[in-house]
Specification:
Blueprint: H1 2-41, H2 48-64, H3 69-95, E1 102-106, H4 111-122, E2 126-130, E3 141-142, E4 154-157, H5 161-171, E5 179-182, H6 191-199, E6 203-209, E7 222-227, H7 231-240, E8 247-250, H8 253-279, H9 285-290, H10 294-307, H11 311-319, H12 324-343, H13 347-362
Helix pairs in contact: 1-3, 2-3, 5-6, 8-10, 8-12
Length: 365
């Protein structure tokens, strides 16, 4: 009898799940209609005040139904993010900015190259790809740059950092008529070839998309733009991201690598060190997972994502940045000081550095 009752309850649960999916699909259809209205009225994709109203209403309704409001909030934050992503994609497609324009992506079969190929194709660009080998059934693949006229409106260099410097040099004799831009995470090795290309009369822009190729929503993400002497070219490249919710940041060339040494270099190496300690600890990952804490879970999630990235790229980010020794030495010094505080039972010093860190973080708000 108990098994029969359990089966009935499970079938009821399945029915409820199907109803939830049906309602979410109906909500998404309504989201598309709202997106169309936003496009026709030139309204912004994201409305934070409206989002707060939705979340507050959901939390209040959850309380009335005896559901944890925090759980309801987490669920609907994901639903809202999915809705925003859908509207953003709508807006990018409707921009039609690439109509009658072409783009060449050198290194277009790498992960970021493929992201840019899809992004530009969605704006109706005629996208051509240059790489070592074509993907299966790939159209518009160019094996040899010397065999074509480089008359594309945009030429995007999406290869590894050191390779990008070489390609920029190779482009100089061709004097491409379109805008040439690199997307490298480190800019120091590209300084001379970018300058030489600009001095040869080419329109050159250096950008740094501060996100990976798996991104679904550009709200809250940043794209750095570095003016190499042609403000009009910078504005044209910015136009590529105008339909998105990405924040476009202007930055001087000389500031980029110093700041990135902290934003990327430091955060990468901390997570790589964290995973190295765990992997060499002799403790089973499964055993640690069973004992996990909130902090450990959060750190492990970030470190796992870092570990899954391209190790060659991450090495270049450390090796090719002239500012890396500064941050790496500062990290080493901080760890050694903490070790010394613990060994010397210096609780006051330990409390002081945590208080200092808290004060620093509070400056952001």
């Amino acid at each position: 009898m108990d098994n029969k009752k359990l089966d009935q309850l499970r079938r009821k649960l399945d029915e409820i799940d199907e109803q939830i999916i049906t309602l979410i699909a109906e909500r998404q259809f309504n989201v598309e209609q709202i997106g169309n209205v936003k496009l026709s009225t030139n309204s912004p994709t994201r409305d934070y005040q409206r989002e707060k109203q939705v979340i507050d209403k959901i939390k209040n309704h959850a309380k009335l139904k005896g559901l944890d409001p925090e759980i309801a909030q987490h669920i609907f934050e994901l639903v809202i993010e999915t809705s925003l992503s859908k509207q953003e994609i709508q807006k990018v497609k409707e921009s039609n900015y690439g109509a009658n324009k072409s783009a060449l992506i050198i290194g277009g079969n790498g992960k970021m190259g493929q992201w840019f190929a899809q992004f530009l194709a969605s704006q109706n660009f005629d996208v051509h790809i240059n790489d070592m080998e074509p993907l299966p059934h790939q159209e518009n693949f160019i094996a040899d740059l010397a065999s074509i006229e480089l008359d594309h409106d945009y030429i995007i260099v999406a290869t590894p950092i050191q390779k990008s410097a070489d390609i920029l040099r190779e482009l100089i004799p061709f004097k491409p008529s379109g805008i040439v831009l690199d997307i490298s995470s480190i800019k120091s090795p590209l300084r001379l070839p970018l300058r030489q290309l600009a001095d040869s009369g080419c329109r050159v822009v250096s950008i740094h998309p501060m996100f990976g190729p798996d991104i679904q929503l550009m709200s809250g993400k940043h794209v750095i733009f570095i003016d190499m002497g042609n403000e009009e070219a910078v504005n044209q490249v910015k136009q590529l991201f105008q339909p998105t919710m990405a924040e476009r940041i202007d930055m001087k060339f000389e500031d980029h690598d110093r700041l990135i040494a902290y934003v990327l270099g430091l955060s990468h190496v901390i997570n790589i060190a964290f995973m190295t300690v765990l992997s060499e600890s002799g403790e089973a990952a499964e055993a640690l997972a069973k004992l996990s804490s909130t902090t450990f879970d959060a750190q492990l999630g970030i470190a796992s994502n870092v570990s899954a990235e391209n190790p060659n790229l991450y090495f270049e980010i450390q090796k090719l940045n002239h500012y890396s020794p500064t941050t790496l030495n500062a990290l080493s010094d901080a760890v050694q000081r903490i070790i010394q505080m613990v060994h010397q039972d210096n609780q006051a010093a330990f409390v002081n550095i945590m208080t200092q860190a808290k004060s620093y973080i509070n400056q952001r708000s």
